[in-house]
Amino acid sequence: MGELYADVIVDISHEKLDKSFQYLVPEKLRGTLDVGMCVTVPFGNGNKLIRGYVINIGATCKFDPARTKAIKEIIKNGVEVEDKMMALAVWIRRNYGCTMIQALKTVLPARQSVKKLEQKTIERLMDKEQILSLFGECERKKQTAKARLLRELLDQEAIPREWVTMKLGVSPQTIHSLEKAGAIRVVSTSSFRNPVKLQRGEESRNVLSQDQQTIVREIMEDFDSGNKGTYLIHGITGSGKTEVYMRLIEEMLARGRQAIVLIPEIALTYQTLLRFYTRFGDRVSVMNSTLSAGEKYDQCQRAKKGEIDVIIGPRSALFTPFPNIGIIVVDEEHESSYKSESTPKYHARETALEVARLHGASVVLGSATPSTEAYYRAKAGDYRLFTLKERLTGGSLPDVTVADMRQELKEGNRSIFSRRLQELLADRLQKGEQSILFLNRRGYAGFISCRSCGHVMKCPHCDVSLSEHANGMLICHYCGYREPKPSLCPQCGSKYISGFRAGTQQIEEKLKEMFPRVRTLRMDADTTRTRDSYEQILSAFSNGQADVLIGTQMIVKGHDFPNVTLVGALAADLSLNVGDYRAGERTFQLLTQAVGRAGRGALKGEAVIQTYQPQHYAVVCARDQDYEGFYREEILYREMLGYPPASHMLGVQIFARDEDGGRRLAETLAFDVKEKLEGMTLIGPAPAAVGRINDIFRFVFYVKGTNYDKLISIKDSLEERIQTMQPAGESVQFDFDPVNTL
Ligand code: ADP
Ligand code: ZN
Ligand code: ZN
Question: Could you please report the per-residue DSSP string of 90-110?
Fold first, then answer.
């Protein structure tokens, strides 16, 4: 038997990962030594013994075998935090398919010195009475942005300037004019630490409802008796989930443990931040994409040192190096942004369970429309299910109508608005209430096709439809390729070449044709290029600066608009036709959320869903706000076709510069898999849904099977096979239980 060699890193940090040292695996450690283990090795000229971690084991010696030193011994318990990070990386590598270095780069923060960003804080100079009267004056003059800031200053003496501009959508000019009026001043705080000085204690603490109490009590009883479980709270927005999370976190802090709260970035609103800050003060920290790498690193250091105990943030907040986590909350657990889109393609919900296992922590998942995965596991008894049925904020569920657009056309209505929606829009405009028009636009809408021959205008590099923009240009949303819109079909010469379905811009135009005086705001990828435009549009709308907000799926998340009493979901089918197994689930979630936007305040709401498939269960159940009904249909379909969660799926993606080379590699690998199927199913290989991006060809095949471990061994054998082949122009990626069509 040949020798074995191990790559060892002696400094576990993001930056040093590429500097590993190779050691011989001595006879006595063969069979025991594994990737992720902590070892002592002789180092440098003096052969001083130091600690390191094994990140790879193989049979090739990269240097001179005669001069390669041997590992001394395995250390059972290394540095605790590092051991856990290492174990997590090993798990990610195994479950999602990547190298140990890629896995470690995912879980370790990049070390970077903190740029001493100047932090500015807005401080109140007047007393409450004065602020209140100024507030009243601004309200009367309809100076809504000013009023909004003053409203917050009634509760808080100081607010970070960044929150005011970003989350409250108040412009620098407005801040300046309040400064001139002597109401506030802007002060610089040189240190990044503790940027927030909010009033604590003023917060009126709610008495938990019976249902909320039950959840908190049972989870803590489990925790204290050593049963660290996973819990799913199914409750509509406003049913008190966040309040439950905060109580649980308090309980955990009292036991000396730390907490991680995952929230999709898009749902991380000012109100949410403020609630956590007022409750936990400077023991809480936020991790989001607006932080620099240095700031993120600094957060991690603070977590390690025990300066903070609660972190809120998207997916990556899961890797905060807390010493002893007690609870991990995954809010809006159904959100697809919890799945990483780059290797390792980990799912934060599943990874949270592993982090919790390593720490002996509880996991709480929350959603108004749970993912089919989570609900399935709750039904199977793996997770404990709690339901919160009532909305604590008042407001009732809206009345929903489904408009059959085929029927509309038959009866002579050629408009993009059904007659019912037109009536209701007119009514709301007349009453001065607000409406939302939601275009369910995922992927393939907005394309140009010929009604004569069916030719679709596509990007020559990416094989996706080009989208039409206002300036008459067709644009590729993957690579940015653009060309002018043709007046005649390049295929057949017909002049009937045009947009097949409306985008948000056309909807706005049509609306203005119908109601010339309507004030609109539009929110889509074009109007939210910059990082704060999103917040600004939302707050302009909540201040009544428009009658109708038109937008894509972005508008159905986060924010509450109490004055909205009408929601129109246009073209509900677009997402039904995306062509992957989650289309139904996604459509149901989006429609349910969209419909739920109407009638949040005191006024009763109404909603209209426009569709060409009025009988589809995703549409029908969204109309009735019937989650259970939807789940029953959906799980039947998943079981029948062997899709997750009824089964597991491994997607194997092949990327190649050369089309033939890519196809051949895909076929070779798929052929290999065929030998090892043992009851599993092979689908493909085929060109991927997007067959080419930036002149790189993509092929894909899938393996379906109920046993995840068997899929892992398929992945392992493919990895080995690829290593021996060493393809030059091609690369391969794995995606377990893919969330999007590959
Ligand atoms: P969710 O997270 O499900 O949307 P929240 O926890 O944000 O729900 O609660 C919605 C609103 O109800 C919040 O304004 C919150 O302060 C309030 N609330 C929560 N629990 C209670 C309670 N037990 N009594 C009164 N109000 C509550
Ligand atoms: Zn044509
Ligand atoms: Zn392109």
Answer: HHHHHHHT--HHHHHHHHSPP
- Residues 425-483: tens digit of each pLDDT: 999 999 999 999 988 765 444 567 776 666 778 878 766 677 777 678 887 765 668 89
The ligand minimizing its distance to the Cα of 454 is: 2
Q: Is the same domain home to 546 and 430? A: yes
Asked if 652 contacts 704 with a C-beta cutoff of 8 angstroms, the reply is no
Task: Indicate whether 664 belongs to any domain.
Answer: yes
Count of domains observed in the chain: 6
Q: Is the CB of 240 under 6 A from ligand 1?
A: yes
Range 185-190 average pLDDT: 73
pLDDT of residue 362: 98
Q: Is the CB of 641 under 6 A from ligand 1?
A: no
Q: Which residues make beta-bridge pairs with 41?
A: 50
Render 266-322 in DSSP notation, one character per residue.
Answer: GG--HHHHHHHHHHHGGGEEE--TTS-HHHHHHHHHHHHHTS--EEEESGGGGG---
Q: Which of 155, 387, 392 to mutate to test the pocket of ligand 1 (most atoms within 8 A of CB)?
A: 392
Residue nearest to atom 18 of ligand 1 (CA): 240
Domain ranges, residue 425 = 399-444+502-637
User: 546 to each of 111, 519, 550, how far by Cα in Å?
Assistant: 45, 5, 10
Please report where in the chains the tokens 């010929």 appear, as a residue: 450
As a whole number of angstroms, the distance between CA 418 and CA 570 comes to: 9
User: Rounded to an integer, what distance in angstroms lies between the CA atom of residue 533 and that of residue 526?
Assistant: 10
205 lines ligand 1 (CB under 6 A): no
Q: Look at ligand 1, atom 14, and give the residue with the nearest C-alpha.
A: 393
Q: Which residues contact 369 (CB under 8 A, 6 or more apart)?
A: 334, 588, 589, 592, 593, 627
Tell me, yes or no, whether 337 lies in a domain. Answer: yes
- In the structure, ligand 3 is a single-atom ion and the residues with CB under 5 Å from it are 459, 461-462, 476, 478-479, 481
DSSP-derived letter for residue 207 is: P
- Ligand nearest to the backbone CA of 467: 3
What is the Å distance from ligand 1's center to 268 Cα?
A: 16
User: Inter-axis angle of helices 627-641 and 372-379, to 10 degrees?
Assistant: 90
For residues 175 and 12, what is the distance between their CA atoms, to the nearest angstrom?
Answer: 45
- What's the start-to-end Cα distance of the chain, in Å? 42
Say how many Å lie between the CA of residue 342 and the centre of ligand 3.
Answer: 19
Residues 203-250 pLDDT 10s:
567 889 999 999 999 999 999 999 999 999 999 888 999 999 999 999
pLDDT at 443: 43
* Residue that finishes a domain, picked among 191, 225, 244: 191
Q: Are residues 178 and 222 in the same domain?
A: no
CA of 581 to the centre of ligand 3 (A): 25
| Pairing mode of beta strands 158-160, 230-235 | unpaired
Percent with pLDDT over 90 in the chain: 40
User: Other CB atoms closer than 10 Å to residue 33's CB: what's the count?
Assistant: 19
